[in-house]
Amino acid sequence: MLGYTITQWLFGILSFLAIMFALMVVFSRNPVSSVLYLVLTFFCIAGHYLLLNAQFLAVVHIVVYAGAIMVLFLFVIMLMNLNEDTEPQRTWLSKIIAAIAGGMLLFVMVGSLKGAGELGLAQYGHSQIGLVKNLGTVLFKEFLFPFEIASILLLAALVGAIMIGKKEIK
Amino acid sequence: MLNGISINYYLLLSAVLFIIGAVGVMARRNSIIIFMCIELMLNAVNLLLVAFSTLHNDAAGQVFVFFIMAVAAAEVAVGLAILSMIYRNVKNIDTDVLTNLKN
Predict the structure, then answer these.
(1) What residues in chain B have per-residue pLDDT under 50?
(2) What is the rounded (10 degree) CA torsion for B90, B70, A30, A167?
(3) Which of A90, A102, A106, B61 sits in a 20 to 30 Å window from B25, CA-based?
(4) Do A164 and B63 touch (CB under 8 A)?
């Protein structure tokens, strides 16, 4: 089809959808629909992971982000009873200033990319590193200590969240 | 090229996603939306890490993404606890109202 492979079509469609949904996260007025659009963005990014042959990471991404983190966001929005009417809006001037600042940042990034030239020339057809077996070997051999530290970090975050969320600290 | 797609396109996509997140942080006033835009920026970086890990055929990049996910989960848990505590005390999470440190 038009000289593009199926992978390139998938990449294009997923990129388009990811960018559209990401824009909708920023532009939608209702916080709940922002959360739902962010979930869709995460699904598109998981599709990108699949294209990159990182299957395990794609599954973990969906489980952790769409399954856990976004549900947490939805719960907090529900607890605060936020909706379109309570949504604070910035003035148009500051919105335009934010858009200009973002556009200039994009300009700088794309400009530096232009100078980088073609980076990825090597062809890696079917990379096997994203499979559970290889990732597990690397994670538990080379990165064992950081892995343990991450578990301590999660425990500390758990305790901290409970301590902060308590009615009153005695 | 990796599976037929140049890494430059991944760089471009990640840059665009990151900047959408940055603009969201600048343009919105709801603290929860700002949090979600930070998640979007983290994910743009994650995508690029995975792309480069596939390009160089090195699993370290993907392991790094795991750690970023763990840190993001911890950050969200503590951050949302703080936000709900603020909401309980101030009844508002508008960033223009929470200016106690200003004066």
Answers:
(1) 1
(2) -30
(3) B61
(4) no
pLDDT of residue A170: 54
Closest CA in chain B for residue A148: B67
Spell out which residues of chain B touch residue A76, defining contact as CB-CB under 8 Å: 32, 80, 83-84
Contact A105 B50 (CB under 8 A): no
Pairs of CB atoms within 8 A across A/B: 231
**Integer angstrom CA distances of residue A85 from A25, A29, A82, A132:** 17, 9, 8, 46
Contacts for B93 with CB less than 8 Å, ≥ 6 apart: A80, B30, B31, B32, B83, B86, B87
- State how far the Cα of A102 lies from the Cα of A115, in Å rounded to an integer: 20
Higher-confidence position of A167 and A126: A167
User: What pLDDT, on the 0 to 100 scale, is given for residue B1?
Assistant: 47
Distance of alpha carbon A60 from alpha carbon A123, whole angstroms = 26
Q: For B85, which of A73, A129, A165 is closest by C-beta distance?
A: A165
Q: How confident is the model at residue A121 (pLDDT cuts 50, 70, 90)?
A: very low
Residues A119-145 have a mean pLDDT of 75
The stretch A32-44 carries a mean pLDDT of: 93
The reply to whether A1 falls in a domain is no
Residues A140 and A168 in one domain: yes
The reply to whether A75 falls in a domain is yes
Q: Nearest-CA distance from A117 to chain B in Å?
A: 8
- HSE at residue B91, side-chain half, CA atoms within 13 A, is 0
Contact state of B78 with A161 under an 8 Å Cβ cutoff:
yes
